[in-house]
Amino acid sequence: MKQIDLVYRTAFAELAQRTFDAQFQADFPLEGRFVTVPVKGRNYWYFDVPTPEGKDKRSYVGPEDDPEITVRVKAHKEIKNDIRERRRLVAMLQRSGGTSSPDRFAGEVTRALADAGLFRLRAVLIGSVAFGCYSGLLGVRLPNTAIQTGDADFAQDFAISSGVEDRLPPILEVLRSVDETFQAVPHQADKAKVVAFTNSVNYRVEFLTGTRGSDEYTGKPSPMPALGGASAENLRFLDYLIYEPVRTVLLHREGVSVNVPAPERYAVHKLIVSSRRLNDAPGRAKRDKDLLQASLLSEALVETKQGDVLADAYRQAWDRGPSWQEGIAAGLVMMPDNGKRALADALGVAVDKLGEEKGIS
């Protein structure tokens, strides 16, 4: 696992900050004003823009106790548009820095959704497009074979979607701004709801959420008020994946400010879901990629002295009960040896004790 030179890690961090600043300015023009609104005992920032009708248009910004949000609220008028410099940083990181970039189409789709406000509404980029962000975030080189994908997946917590009191423009219109051949795909269990969109070459964009309460929601779509008419597929284990995501930058054009899962949770989640893949050819291919990504991130976290956070994420998943433990244990059997060694090192156990409750308590 080779680390990226410090100068490029520093450049990536600077780009991530500048991109978030620029997205913040684009979302909230100078003629508006920020206000705090109490919701269920917690304060949130909203942004009011005057309209010709005399009634303010209100948009969700984020929690008042998020320090990055509050700093930018206070410095809003000082944020400058520096697209040219950000493009220079992206090109340098792509050309010489050893960091990973998405394919052009995935970048365009993510950028369009970001500009529409998807990540402002606390959605999370997941899947292999998100995995590509960990190269710059962790400062390590990741192989392109672990990043290639033919789809883009996005997740949002159901409670957030219901509670932000803001919504995106129609998702299909946003996607057609990238490729006019995008079409909505009716959900098999409820034809009136849409969780996925595909274009003429079968590139798939899908929206997901965590299963609420019990397995009765699994396989059924959930209406998501914030997602511009789209619903989301309920998936087990997803609430664990998207808990406390991190903000970073996707290396496309001048950079796209995105939220991605914490890398340690991504690693453990991939270990679990690998054990639930079908045993047909597509399922085996997905399983192999799950295990490769879990292994690479485990190695990267240990290499960058973050084994403790990996161990904490592992224990939190293990403590969720038998079905989680079964998934972890089954994934460990198939995990590449380098990943097993890294995970064992993070947990402070022998490799042959991985997957045993007494070995991680």
Report what the structure shows.
The protein has 361 residues and is an alpha+beta fold. The protein contains 15 helices and 12 strands. The strands form 3 sheets. Strands 4, 5, 6, 7, 8, 9 and 10 form a 7-stranded mixed β-sheet that branches. A 3-stranded antiparallel β-sheet has the order 1-2-3, covered by helices on one side. The radius of gyration is 20 Å and the shape is globular. The two termini are 28 Å apart. The mean pLDDT is 91.
How is the secondary structure organized here?
Layout: H1 6-27, E1 33-39, E2 42-49, E3 57-63, H2 67-74, H3 83-95, H4 104-116, E4 124-126, H5 127-131, H6 134-138, E5 151-155, H7 158-163, H8 171-176, E6 183-187, E7 190-198, E8 204-210, E9 221-223, E10 231-235, H9 238-241, E11 246-250, E12 256-260, H10 263-274, H11 281-303, H12 307-318, H13 322-334, H14 337-347, H15 357-360
Parallel strand pairs: 5-8, 8-10
Antiparallel strand pairs: 1-2, 2-3, 4-5, 6-7, 7-8, 9-10, 11-12
Helix pairs in contact: 1-3, 10-11, 10-12, 10-13, 11-12, 11-14, 12-14
What descriptive keywords fit this protein?
three-stranded antiparallel β-sheet; 361 residues; single chain; 43% helix
What is the H-and-E element order?
A: HEEEHHHEHHEHHEEEEEHEEHHHHHH
Separation, N- and C-terminal Cα atoms: 28 Å
- Work out the oligomeric state of the chains in this entry: single chain
Rg, alpha carbons: 20 Å
| Strand composition percent | 15-25%
Shape by Cα distribution: globular
The major β-sheet equals: 7 strands, mixed
Q: If you average the pLDDT, what whole number results?
A: 91
- Number of strand segments: 12
Helix content: 40-55%
Q: What is the count of DSSP helices, taking H or I runs of 4+ residues? A: 15
Structural class of the secondary elements? alpha+beta
Low-confidence stretches: none
